[in-house]
Amino acid sequence: MMRDAFSQRKDRLKVFQAARERLLRRPAPDRDDLRNINCPLCGGRILMADLRAALYVCPACGQTLPMPAHARLENLLDPGTMKERQEGLKTTNPLAFPGYSDKLDRARRQSGLNDSVVTATGRIDGLAVAIACMDSRFMMGSMGVVCGEKLVSLIEHATKRKLPLVIVATSGGARMQEGILSLMQMARTSQALNHFHAAGLLYIVVLTDPTTGGVMASFASLADITLAEPGALIGFAGPRVIQQTVGGDLPEGFQRAAAQLENGFIDAIVPREDLRRELQFYLTIHRKEGRL
Ligand SMILES: [Zn+2]
């Protein structure tokens, strides 16, 4: 009798203990989730947690807002399959450009990244891919030596392993603080893609807002399939520069995704929530065996 009472009490204690452990294990609410930001288009206040859940598309007006590289990878790749490459590679200040080191420190702190691109391998619906996502929070997604090097290394890896390649681009262009060294990355990425294409492999680029300058003029315009997000600004020189040069008004929607689709520059506009499915479709019909 006494023994029963003891073991009942012991069981109850176990239940309490398990519940307490569950509570302790639950992650504390992310302070960032409780932050509000204003949509740049409609001005509406959006809770960060809601914005994340909506894949960084404004719930009020539908505007596609910039998406952090890791959130993008998490959205596109099968859970638990992402293997990031060269995440520790850090830019120095190769030309001793005044103020550049401070700018890099600030960009690292604000974005939590070491440079403007995250490269990885992983799977989309079970299909192995090499993937790169640029992040506009790091110096407008500009391309310097580290960004170029990470992309070239990823493209070479994909060529060697016969993997399809997906690049989600966003960039203001080459990084001026690295001068000619950053312009060289246009040639390096293009050359690496030449070998990749010669091996008969598939390259899909997703142009997001904005993709301009030296990135647009190199690897972002060399894909087999060119997709864009709704409303993305896509071009070499921006509309302001062109307007100043031609000295006249530009048509509405100039260099936006819809106009670029109409002009045959891109193949399709894909809303963010459909992107994973769309990539999965292209990867399936172009399927080749590859290893990660
Ligand atoms: Zn909005």
From TrEMBL:
Residues 35-292 form the CoA carboxyltransferase N-terminal domain. Its cofactor is Zn(2+). NCBIfam families: accD (TIGR00515). Belongs to the AccD/PCCB family. Its EC number is 2.1.3.15. Binds 1 zinc ion per subunit. This is Acetyl-coenzyme A carboxylase carboxyl transferase subunit beta. Zn(2+) binds at residues 39, 42, 58, 61. A zinc finger (C4-type) spans 39-61. Acetyl-CoA carboxylase is a heterohexamer composed of biotin carboxyl carrier protein (AccB), biotin carboxylase (AccC) and two subunits each of ACCase subunit alpha (AccA) and ACCase subunit beta (AccD). The keyword RNA-binding does not apply.
